[in-house]
Amino acid sequence: MKRRQKITIAAVSLVSVTVILTMCFTQLLHKKTEHHHQPPAQCPQNVNQKYVSGVYYSDWSPYEPRMHFPKNIDTSKITHIYYSFFLVDADSSALKLGDSWSDIEMPMGKNTVLKGCIGALNSLRDEKPGFKNIMAVGGWSNKDAFPLALRKKHGVEKLAQSCVETMFQYGFDGIDLDWEYPKDDGKEPRIYLELMRKIRQHMNELEIAIWGDKKRRFHLSVATPAFYDKLETFPIKEMDQYIDYWNMMTYDYYGEWSSGTGFHSNLYDGTNKFSEHSLCADGAIRYMTNKIGINSRKVVLGMALYGRGFTNVKEGDPKKTSGLINRKFKGVGGESEGEPGMWLYNQLPIRGTQEVFDEQYGSAYCFDPKTKTLVGYDNVDSTRQKAQYVRFHNLAGGFWWESCGNKWDNVQQSLVHVFNEDIERLDRNETNLYQDPKLREHYLQIFAKSGFLAATFK
Predict the structure, then answer these.
(1) Residue boundaries of the structural domains of the chain
(2) Do residues 68 and 404 lie in contact, with contact meaning Cβ atoms separated by under 8 Å?
(3) Share above pLDDT 70 across residues of the chain, in percent, rounded to a whole number
(4) What pTM did the predictor assign?
(5) What is residue 351's three-state secondary structure?
(6) Which CATH class, in words, describes the domain spanning 52-304+379-433?
(7) Where are the strands (E) in 90-234, listed by range?
(8) Is 344 helix (H, G, I), strand (E, B) or coil?
(9) In a 3-state reduction of DSSP, which class is residue 145?
(10) What is the dihedral of CA 281, 282, 285, 291, to 10 degrees?
(11) 8 A C-beta contact, residue 390 and residue 384
(12) Is 180 in the active site?
């Protein structure tokens, strides 16, 4: 922040002093938010504020080469686990399992009554309460099924009902919707809104049936696009009444689809100018909170446990960030099975390279001069910067895609642990809904002994 000239005030009234000080403070905030990226160390904080900390866990995680299981997650640092994905069936307008073997059949231990990743997550919540299991619906690979299912006659009602029934059947605490993305045709965004309304309606009905009231107990969130072109097509203010959290997907800003290199999970755009159109987390967050007026305590900052890279980069001065950004490239490389140009965080930095943190962009990167490979990603430093950003802007917290990329066995390098150290207080709820006698009674009335959880109810 530029040093400000001292203001000398002489022989002015108390009212004038107040006005001048107010103007100075407003100017200070304006310059702070537009020209300097690091919140001052002495900025006022609500020491009693609590935050959410979520991870997405995918149904492909237990397979090679990842071999990452629910038990590997340190749930003491987590408030939400988003199980990904249940899929929308275009023909029936209902949900279906994404991978039956991984979801509910794979053995997860000698003493586990329930099988599969879903069974393991339920058991984990019973053993170590304090976090919620959330059912994530859709995802990028399932994007085409949404409009096909929802545009059918009664499609919205069928899918909404199926979402809530499936959530309850498999013991989830809520639903996270991930349609990437409704077409900007004046219809699909409104259909998405109606889906949210219907899901919340069915959640309310379930709560009334169990507890006799519709106090919100079941969670509904949206995996939200984090760039202007998509956000402006959503009826966000109308959606907000049904939503508990907006999980901002503030990553994938740059990749193989880009015309030039860039950091895919950058907090800022690297310049001293602010724009809601910028490809960065800050632009998307401010659009939601400042432009649309969404309560910041419902906005969750997304972080990536992977990097995106570019090969054969035509760099300028590789010792400077500016010499590596917005450069032509040929190919994207990658060490992560399944998608070109990706490295899991636990595969970074590339062997033999130096990890660099750029505070102006809010991103880490490494560059291999031999292959001219650039990879941008989050590291310990960028995570601390983002935790500070969450606190300074009074956001709800943070989440990561996806759990298998974290360095869970190294507390100093685990980004989840680092984030938690800096935000200090988690909004953990020790109440397990599925231990409630009223809920169990209602569950057995609906699913009887064939219900997925029935064997665990005593």
Answers:
(1) 52-304+379-433
(2) yes
(3) 88
(4) 0.90
(5) coil
(6) alpha beta
(7) 94-96, 132-138, 174-178, 219-225
(8) strand
(9) helix
(10) -140
(11) no
(12) yes
User: For the chain, how many residues are written?
Assistant: 458
Contact by Cβ (8 Å): 59, 70: no
> What is the model's pLDDT at position 1?
36
With CA atoms as reference, report the closest residue to 244 among 164, 175, 166: 175
In 3-state terms, what secondary structure has residue 133?
A: strand
CB-CB contact of 400 with 304 (8 Å):
yes
Amino acid type, 186:
G
Q: What is the DSSP letter of 214?
A: -
DSSP character at residue 77: G
In 10 A of CB 241, how many CB atoms? 10
| HSE (side-chain half, CA atoms, 13 Å) at 110 | 0
Cβ(283)–Cβ(269) below 8 Å:
yes
Contact 86, 133 (CB under 8 A): no
**Burial label, 138 (beta-carbon count in 10 A; 0-12, 13-18, 19+):** buried
Q: Which of 304, 206, 292, 208 is closest to 255 using CA atoms?
A: 304
Token pair of 445 as six digits: 């009335």
Contact 123, 135 (CB under 8 A): no
> Annotated catalytic residue: which of 105, 180, 256, 335?
180
- For residue 37 the two structure tokens come to 């990226």
Task: Convert the pLDDT of each residue in 340-355 to its tens digit.
Answer: 999 999 999 999 999 9
Q: Beta partners for 82?
A: 56, 134
Q: Is the peptide bond before 361 cis (omega within 30 degrees of 0)?
A: no
- Report H helices in 77-187: 100, 116-127, 145-150, 155-169
